[in-house]
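$ fold --in a.seq
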Amino acid sequence: MSLRASEAEPLAAWWLDATTGAALQGVRQPNPQTLILSLRAPGRTLHLLLAVGRRRARFSGIDKPPANPAQPHAFQGYLRAHLGGRVERFELVGGDRVLRIDFRSPDGIVSLIHEFTDATGNVFFVQDGSIRSALGPLRPGLKLGGPWTPPAGAPRVQPDRFSAFEGEARDRAVAATYAQVDLDEEESSLRVAVRRPLAAARKKLARQRSQQEAEVARAGESARLRREGELLQASFHLLSRGQESIQVTDWYAEGQPTLEVALDPKLAPAEQIESRFRRARRADRGAEEANRRLKETRAREQVVAALLAEFEGADVDGLASIQRRLPSWLPSRQVPPSARRATPRLPYRAWRAPSGHEIRVGKRAADNDALTLHHSRGNDAWLHVKGSPGAHVVIRSPGESPPLDLLLLGAQVALVHSKVADGERREVSWTRCKHVRKPKGFPPGRVAVDQEKVLYVETSRAALEALTDLGDGA
């Protein structure tokens, strides 16, 4: 559902009449697909909503704008800085679903062009005939700094659903129609957000319960193992190393039948018996833990079943209530590999020293170059085991006179990550990153160093326990 060209023409005419002499008072962007202009006309303030997106593309007046987001959107900030003046023109372009609003500002005429189409809807800020910014991604054929051109294709003429309304009544009718669309979309979105984790939890818990029931059954073998141990004790004189099995009298069974007990030929007689009792004790502990986890899984299954039963007949408010009560142990949605790859990989691993300084170390030869040359500042301290290949270490912002204990920590990082053994004493060079160069032709990880100083340090991995791991950014 979206506003059609035939429905927009009377709206455009009404807004041109209503905004005669109106000046832009404010710009809001409550969400990435909505823009609200507040226009001050003689005697009143008008709020115009411009929306894009599937089933929501339209423009209409609203009685009260929503609150600003906590963090302003980039397009909102751009318009607040560059859009202003009085409304000069308010029209549909070519009779299609494209609205153009011209403002006369001290810099001349600037325009907002709103394409309220489902597939490629957008709002453009145009000045001097060029697109300067946009609400969303530009459709093919458009680029920042280039001219705006209307979407291809002839306008679709359809019956006007709001023909019975005029002026402000037409605005209210459009707003009411889309309020229901927003409500339906919210309910649909909530249904997915609630059903997906509950359905995933139901499947996962059923699988866990099946595995835990099998664990409980296996853990119940303690009685058999203890019984075999006691029977072997009674037949100790028949045991010898190398036996694979033995026939013993089962004193506990009715009729005292003969029972064959499998043995480990590698074990001595006493070890055969102790092995049975040790395994029995372990089975008892396993049975207790398995029963505890099985009880917890069954309780969670009951919670999920109750929420799913409530979900079936819930309205929007009910769905929102269920969402607030979703347990924290529900399966979380996995981040797709494509999204994980979108996070840039950092070429270093980092720690925090007790002094608060960050210490970074390159992961491999090429990463050493990237850390030293592209992920450091000129006055950062740079360290490297002198005279041998190894890790580059950078201490961020160590000050004019880096403390000796901080430099020694950095030296230990360099030694450990250059695979120097504990207790071995080596020279570690240090200088400022601005004195490290990469001459042409040098292989990855190899650099030229000026103004170096030397620390003579004994490797101690225990020294790194003072560092707080900040992760590696991979």
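$ fold --in b.seq
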Amino acid sequence: MKRISIILISILSLALIHSCEEDQVGPTLSLSDAVAPTITLPANNSSLVLTFPEADSVLIIRWSAADYKMENIPAIKYTLVMEYPSKGMETTLASTDALETKITYQNLNFKLLDIFGLEPEEQGDFVFKVTASLTDNSTTEDLTSTPLNISITTYDAEPPPAKPIYLLGDATQVGWNNNAALEMTHVKDGLFEITATLNSTGDWIKFISQLGKWAPQWGTDNSGTWEAGPLVYRPTESVPDPRGIPAPHVAGDYLIRADTANLVYTVTSVTAKLFICGSATDAGLDYSNALPMVKTGVLTFETSVYLKGGNNYTFGFITSQSESSPQYVLSEKGKLTYVSQGANERLIPGPKEEGWYMVRVDLIKRSYSLIKK
């Protein structure tokens, strides 16, 4: 009888322990009441036209937090996917614990062209979805948003070349001959420049956009001086001619800049001398020892110089041996441009082979050449 009592006590103890273990189990995860994230920005069925001038602009994609209707859940990770249904393709844009992500127009445009195969200026219909996850190794708890539809148009990663503008006037060497006006160099964003010789007898200069035509054209108003002032735009022949830009009445070489985007101009006197210096030359970065070049014509120079080879060596051109940095360096288009600051970032790389070179510079055409001797 005692043995039977001991067995009964043991069975009851096991049952009690099992009951306590069941009481300690927490609530189980159920997705029936869970709320998936929702993309709140941008708006559904919106359209976006990407453009080169806005390449640095940012597209913000924002969503609401997922709600699993439980406390003490692990951190939620969100994965944003961009789909191109017409080609059955997709790419992941972000994997984050934040509730938004940002992508520049330039980066987005690259994905459209390189990953999805769109052509420049082509429109595509894309779907964005964000998925909330509790773990990295299971998808059973994933919550995915409803699709967000956006129509996106790409742009050409290489912008079309800017149309040139031209300098003319009775203070220039071409006078008022609009068929022979001097082409200016496009620097960036509607800014054009030229280094030209102005005479002492002429009174005016202007800018035109097409050889042989007087419109479109740019002049100034009564506030404009020979040094600087506003540009006044004449779009068509039906609009009266703007006032000419006053000439300095001192013969010499001048850097002339026309900013057609901001409608301002500047005219700055420059020296008739030119020097070459930089790590590729024997003068190095000692500008007081910069090597003088020989003036061979109207703003053309040349010299024979020994240059060190390779991109690790660079050089530029300065107008005075007292200058602290080269002033004529490379523009984005590979032509020479005049800069007063930041010149070291755009110096000309040395030739492939070390040796003696004839270096020629044409400041009107903004060109240079190296001829190995």
